[in-house]
Amino acid sequence: DDTTYKGKHETKIGSNGKESIPSDCQSNHARVSAFSRTGSQLSDLAVFKYCLEGINERAAFLKEVVVSATEQALADFAAQVSIYTGCSHN
Length: 90
Description:
Blueprint (H helix, E strand, L loop, with lengths): L1 E5 L2 E5 L5 E2 L3 H14 L6 H9 L2 H14 L2 H15 L5
Helix pairs in contact: 1-3, 2-4
């Protein structure tokens, strides 16, 4: 399979030439997995993708992440998001 990116979702193109776009739930699971794989921090790519998502996708992602993340990991994530978005709330 070849993986390409279209819009905000990852698209897989199978050997039959048809696209398979993951549901929001699958996308959120992939992002949470990225959080778990890197230990206590999200990769820069995962943070960047989070910044590009809409409010509903962000909310779903945060609901899943807060269950397993430490306070420090969430604080680090918030700091990274503020860097990417140029928004700083102290």
